C-alpha cells in the first residue's frame, strides 16, 4: 500500500490480520441479529470480510456489504441486533483501514469487537461486565501482528458512548501492549 510522509506502513497481510480479528467478533454476534431478522446483509458483510482475510483481493464487495450491513443496523428492531449488524459492517469496512497516522483509525481496527461486546452486554440485560469480558477476550485474541499494527497508531480517543468506551478500553486505549503479552482474562482473576 502506498503511504505518504508521516503515515503508518501497513502491508496487505497486516490488513488481513486486522480484518480477521474483526470477523471473529462479528461472527459470534451474528445470531443476535439473525434471531430477529430475515435479512442477509450483515452475514454478507462478514462473508466479504472473511473472503478478504482468507487471501482474496480487496474489492468493492467489502465496501458495499459494509454499507448494507450498517443500513440493516439502522432498521434493526432491537439495540442488541443493531450492534450485531454494526459489528458485521465494521468487519467488512476494516478492509479499508487507512495508513493515516490518526487516532480515528484505531476505531476501524477495534469497532467490530466493541460493537460485538455491546451487543453481548445488551443481550445479558445491559450488564457492563459482559462487555468488559469481551474486551478482555479481544486482548487475548490480539495476535502479535494486530498489536504491532495498533502500536503504530495514536491512542484511541476517549468517547462518551458505550462503544467508544469499549474501544478505548485496555486493548484500544493502550495500543502499546507488547506483542505476545497475554493478560489474564478477567473471568480468571
TrEMBL record:
Domain Imm-5-like stretches: 12-126
Q: What's the superkingdom here?
A: Bacteria
Q: Where is this region: Disordered?
A: 170-189
Protein name per the record? Imm-5-like domain-containing protein
Organism in which the protein naturally occurs: Saccharopolyspora dendranthemae
Amino acid at each position: 500500500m502506498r503511504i505518504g510522509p508521516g503515515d503508518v506502513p501497513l502491508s496487505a497481510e497486516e490488513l488481513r490480520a486486522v480484518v480477521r480479528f474483526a470477523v471473529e467478533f462479528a461472527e459470534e454476534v451474528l445470531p443476535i441479529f439473525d434471531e430477529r431478522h430475515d435479512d442477509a446483509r450483515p452475514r454478507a458483510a462478514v462473508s466479504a470480510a472473511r473472503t478478504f482475510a482468507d487471501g482474496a483481493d480487496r474489492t468493492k464487495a467489502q465496501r458495499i456489504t459494509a454499507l448494507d450491513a450498517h443500513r440493516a443496523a439502522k432498521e434493526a428492531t432491537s439495540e442488541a441486533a443493531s450492534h450485531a449488524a454494526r459489528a458485521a459492517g465494521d468487519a467488512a469496512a476494516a478492509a479499508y483501514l487507512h495508513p493515516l497516522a490518526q487516532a480515528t483509525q484505531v476505531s476501524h481496527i477495534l469497532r467490530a469487537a466493541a460493537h460485538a461486546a455491546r451487543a453481548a452486554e445488551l443481550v445479558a440485560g445491559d450488564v457492563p461486565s459482559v462487555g468488559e469480558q469481551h474486551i478482555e477476550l479481544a486482548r487475548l485474541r490480539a495476535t502479535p501482528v494486530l498489536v504491532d499494527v495498533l502500536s503504530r497508531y495514536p491512542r484511541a480517543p476517549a468517547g462518551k458512548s458505550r462503544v467508544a468506551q469499549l474501544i478505548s478500553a485496555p486493548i484500544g486505549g493502550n495500543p502499546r501492549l507488547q506483542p505476545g503479552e497475554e493478560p489474564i482474562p478477567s473471568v480468571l482473576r
